[in-house]
Structure to design on (230 residues):
């Protein structure tokens, strides 16, 4: 990768997150921290308003934006593969959201790139094809609740007790089990952490109520605590 391409890619990376560390940039492009600092300085000299906080990272000052970004054919192909994987993960809202963004991305491709992605769409198939998948349609609203720390009101069908219960929950994370999506949340009814399979949620409502953001919660920490001996 030449320096001009790398600097442009660094600018795009800076716009992809609120704050990006120099180490993240160095790891992505396999360059030294000294080179990162030099590239950041080049962007600043070109008029890009880059802010920085010691010990935290770099950020683009609010209000600055790039013109529409062109993507490479290889990047478009990676999205086609992702589409096949997502289409076999059972959540209709995720499929709808991804297809929407894929259409927008395809719209900026050149004609020959569009033809090539169309060819590829019929030549790639996920290994999960035809396996049993538990379908749901709630992932999109759950993701929104997680990022906005909104309480969800759900009607949940417990297979074990064969009962339906109305619950107010604080959603913290979601993961995929190879057959179904599962939400991890604090259940106010049970007053404890619970896991909810999305296909067993009968109704869902995004409330206006918020809950305290648990900054120390991560899925890796959650699963490690489950496997620790008691």
């Amino acid at each position: 990768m030449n320096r001009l391409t790398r600097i442009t890619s660094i600018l795009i990376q800076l716009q992809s997150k609120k704050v990006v560390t120099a180490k993240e940039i160095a790891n992505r492009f396999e360059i030294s921290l000294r080179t990162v600092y030099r590239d950041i300085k080049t962007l600043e000299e070109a008029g890009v308003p880059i802010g920085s906080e010691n010990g935290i990272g770099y950020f683009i000052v609010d209000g600055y934006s790039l013109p529409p970004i062109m993507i490479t054919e290889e990047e478009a192909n990676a999205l086609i593969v992702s589409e096949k994987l997502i289409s076999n993960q059972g959540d209709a809202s995720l499929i709808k959201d991804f297809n929407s963004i894929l259409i927008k991305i395809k719209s900026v491709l050149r004609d020959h790139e569009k033809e090539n992605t169309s060819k590829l769409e019929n030549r790639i198939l996920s290994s999960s094809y035809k396996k049993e998948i538990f379908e749901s349609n709630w992932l999109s609203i759950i993701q929104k609740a997680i990022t906005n720390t909104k309480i969800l009101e759900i009607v949940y069908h417990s297979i074990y007790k064969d009962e339906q219960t109305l619950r107010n929950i604080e959603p913290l994370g979601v993961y995929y089990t190879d057959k179904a999506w599962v939400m991890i949340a604090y259940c106010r009814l049970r007053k404890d952490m619970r896991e909810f399979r999305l296909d067993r949620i009968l109704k869902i409502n995004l409330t206006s109520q918020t809950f305290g953001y648990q900054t120390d919660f991560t899925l890796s920490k959650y699963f490690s605590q489950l496997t620790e001996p008691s």
